[in-house]
Amino acid sequence: MPQLIPSTTRLRTFEDHVDAVHAVVVFPDRRRMVTSSFDKALRLWDLRTGAMLKKMEGHRDWVHAVVVSQNGQMIVSSDSCGEVIAWHGESGESLIKAIKAHPKSWIQALDLSPDGTMLATGAHDGTAKIWSTSSWQMQGNPITCSGAVRSLRYSPSGDHVAIATFGDIEIYDSATRECIANFKGHTVENGSPLWTPDGTRLLSGGDYHDPTIREWDTSTWKQVGDPWTGHAHNINATAMNPAGTLIASASSDKQVHLWRLSDRRSIATFQHSAWLACVTFSMDGKRIFSGGGDNMISEWEVPKDANSKIQLAMNSTAHDACITGNLSSAQELLTREIESDANDYASYANRSFVMARKLDWDNALDDAIKSISIQRSLMGFISKGIALCGKGLVRDARTAFGLAFMFTNEDSTTIHLLLLIEAIALFNADQREEAMLLVKELAVNCPNADTVACRVVEVYLRTQSGINALNSAHYDEAASHFTAAVNSCTFASSWPIHAIYEDFVMLFGWDLKPLWVTAHQKRCQAFLSAGKLEEALESYRFMMNTIHRTVKATCLNWCTVFEQECGALYLANGDAALTTSDFDKATDLYSVAIDLNSASYTLFANHSKVMLGKMLWEDALFDAQKVIELNPESHVGYQLKHAALRGAQCYDKAIEAFNIMLSKLEDAPDAQFRKLRQQYVSPSDVEDAIRRAIWIELENAPLRLLNTHTGLLCDRAAQINAFKTSTEYQEILSFTTKHADLRMERITEVVAVYFRRVLLSHRWDDTELLFHDIQDKVVYEMNALGGLMKLKSFCKMARHAGYFWAWMDTCCIDKNNNAELQESINSMFAWYRHSALTIVYLGDVFPSSNAGALARSAWNKRGWTLQEFVAPKIVVFYRNDWSLYLDDGFPNHKDSPAIIEELEGATAIDARALVSFRPGMRGVREKLQWASTRITTLQEDIAYSLFGIFSIHLPVIYGEKKQNALGRLLQEIVARSGDITALDWVGQSSEFNSCLPADITSYTAPPCALPSLSEDEIQTMVSSLRNTVAAELAWKLYTLLDNISAPRFANCRLHLPCIAFRVTEVRRRLGSAQETNFTYGIKVDGLHDLLINTEETMIQFSRARPTWQTVLLVRPWNRYLLELPDFAGLSDFGDDTGSEDSYWSAPGSPIDELPRGSPVEEELVDVESHSRALRLIVRLAQPFSALLLAQQRGGEYKRIASDHDIIAQVKDMASVDNMMDVRTLEIL
């Protein structure tokens, strides 16, 4: 195919700079141009005359970059000193003083966001910054890049910024500054990022190590195709024509290359005398401006057929005539060329195209055959195929197109276009289904195909089919074609497809400029003609929502006609709907025809409904009043008036209108209207529903709450009365008019929002106000001293956050009322749990405090504050000046990684538990460890503060001993859960029960961690036992343990299921007389010898010197060793209301279901049961945490406390007899 000849002749030059020109920008008004130079100045130029309009001075060093806003009203430039100046786009006068954007650094990168509100700068200091163009203040923090910034560019949407550095190409979210992609672009340096108009591709240029242009897919950031080669040195600038079809690149090799984006080919070069730094297109895309080391700007003409994918070798005059549709002139010009050169095969082919455009198929075919006879070519066979299709000789046409493929040089772009041309020719020959199928298959199956071209062809062909059907009054068929065309319009309405796909204009005379608009408008007309008004309106709205504003301005007259025609039909259909009382449909129809002037009662009524739907309350009220004036006896006007007043929040007047409406219905002469009264609800029913919702909401609320607006402490009755005088209450009454409105969801939602409350967690001090101090007083009017200052600030903080109610434990509980105190302590966890917000006030954390102050705060060591933090869902920490701790802006500090990390380190509580705590009996030992280091002022409170943690309710008995309070708590935990981990402690025994500790600090040490076996180790040991342990004996032990009862408490006595091992010898080891702890050596039947340290004095004995007292070493039984689920139904939220039997109904043994005395029972167990029993023996043979018990005179036992964990182990795993002493012991 003929190639474009490089253009070397300048059209003109712009000369006035005295040093290298580094930037050039053409204004959107097409009249002016601005340039910058190393001579420290900018210059404004008149593009029509070439005259220099103004020299703009103000920079102190080389001016590197210039950008112009899209409205042309602002110019921004940057220099080597790191300064930025903004200039007026018309006058060229500076708007601001120079900004030191990047002090002492070279700013080479500059770009304005598409809306002109933000400026991005990039410098050699390796940073990029975003500036507001209204305040000229930096927005957010600088972006730290991987290297010096050479260039940057906003994406067409403005959502992203592409930054080219010396090392990488980096893509940032322009709003968040988050780096969303970072990749190695070119070999060494990257430059000149350039987005395609649709934002799907990014182009970049390399330096002299890699002087190529590379194309990147912005969905994957992977390279597309091969690099564009042609330059020999640095690519310093790139530009795209307004149509988005051509790329110009300027290089240090003194050349500008013009590339076609669709096939990535260089189609022209422009030679300069010096290195180049800048390049841009004129606004019409017909000129290129470039400059650099020659100190001037050169203007060049873009080749006219630069967008053509198949070079037609047609002179420019004939080319322009074909494009404009002046076919006679084109024919005449081509005939002259043929007469001057009878062997000009290209002119014959071109004239064949022209004759085909004129539908002169015979002469078109003659010219095509003549062209081929002179020289076989791609153009010749294409022209022949088109002509044959025009004559209806489709079979011969296919042969001609097939021969054309021989001359495509296997170029995919040419092949792709050839197939589209064949499809169009077939379509014109009435082979429409085949043509459409070919286009679709081409879009799907051809690699690297120009799918937009396929879409353009499909849209055009579908539109032509639709026009034919519309002209034949086949409206449904037409609508189907136009819908298919619209669905294929993946290109924007403003996209210059006429210029991009010029080949279709040349060959077939297509007018592509209005294609997008034509497809949409014709679809609207087809639906309207078919009587499908909703589809027509929907299509029209879709068109208006997606059309570009510049295109919309060209079709305003059509829009006016369509709206009038459509509106008239909607009005007529609205009247028809009203005659059938289909008010909903009529409302929708009148919403289109609402501008028609009518004084009818029904139209005003329906117009009022429309305004209500749009929440235009005043307009709706106006229409409702008109309805009342036109028909004062009807209830409808008052019904609409009620709805409008309700929407405007004039609730008293709304209820008044509602009552009048009810009276109109009751007094209506028509029985049918009187019957309508039955659907409305009476006010008393509404009040009952609201009352139920209130009590449900307040069930988990403190008994007394502080009203943050009045400053009064309110009991339940006062809280409810406050609600009944509120706007929210009036709103519910006003909105609940029908029985269907009594749905509790709406009422519950309003009640819940009103009664949202903020709870305070804090460390008490000596100046705290109590209940009697604030009772019947307005907190805000009291003298702000000591604890009152804290209370006032807390209430104001809650009010400022939008909450009506607040609660503070110091003054909101009447501690002299025992019943109230009991309920408060047992409900406090639930109160915090259901708070809308819990504020933690750190009185000992100052504004200057750094991270770690929370961990050191006294608040973090108190017993009650554990539940006050883990229970709420939303918590915010404040310092003692009521500023946010660490200035942390998270709405919920449980979502703050910094704060949760600090608390996790300080409390040793896992972050997940801190954030999403679940009360109940799970993890008993772990929760006890959390509380073990905390302190309370009253000793009993260490136990009371844990009631909510374990979801336990117990009597509060201030004055009882600490051991008794803790004992009652632990007793309840063991009794309800069966969890024996509460027995895992070291220290002194409690007077409450010897198996329980005397102090919560006994749980400070982590629970005893014993080594576990892997599955392979278990299997190995099981195999070793198969021949040494009798199946009957193993299964007997398994059955004994499977059927043993759960641990339980009764009257301070623990009934503990266990495996008991008899102690046969106790001997005290010698130590110093001052020792308070004694060490004893202990021998136990079946176990290895042990050493035990204890404060208690033990009776020494041996087999030779026995004693009356029985001493046992016991293994508390844990059902998990059976490898069966133990607590499958236990809730993590503490709804533990069942009896212990419900938790410990032991799973039945396989033998239980066998008839006694059967042969099967004699065999006892099968292989699987035997394996399960052996696995149990293996686990029992491992080291275990044991309790040392001494029998008392009454037969009960007491635990002998040790100062460390007692770890025991059986001597012989195969000696099952030593493990058969399974019993439940009563322990005092």
UniProtKB/TrEMBL annotation:
Region Disordered: start-end pairs: 1138-1157
Lineage of source species: Eukaryota, Fungi, Dikarya, Basidiomycota, Agaricomycotina
A Pfam family annotated for this UniProt entry: HET
Gene3D superfamilies: Tetratricopeptide repeat domain, YVTN repeat-like/Quinoprotein amine dehydrogenase
Cross-referenced PROSITE patterns: WD_REPEATS_1 (PS00678), WD_REPEATS_2 (PS50082), WD_REPEATS_REGION (PS50294)
Domain Heterokaryon incompatibility: 759-844
UniProtKB keywords: Repeat, WD repeat
InterPro entries to which the protein is assigned, alphabetical: HET, Quinoprotein_ADH-like_sf, TPR-like_helical_dom_sf, WD40/YVTN_repeat-like_dom_sf, WD40_repeat_CS, WD40_rpt
Protein's name according to its UniProt entry: Heterokaryon incompatibility domain-containing protein
SUPFAM superfamilies: Quinoprotein alcohol dehydrogenase-like (SSF50998), TPR-like (SSF48452)
WD repeats mapped onto the chain: 14-55, 56-97, 107-135, 228-269, 269-310
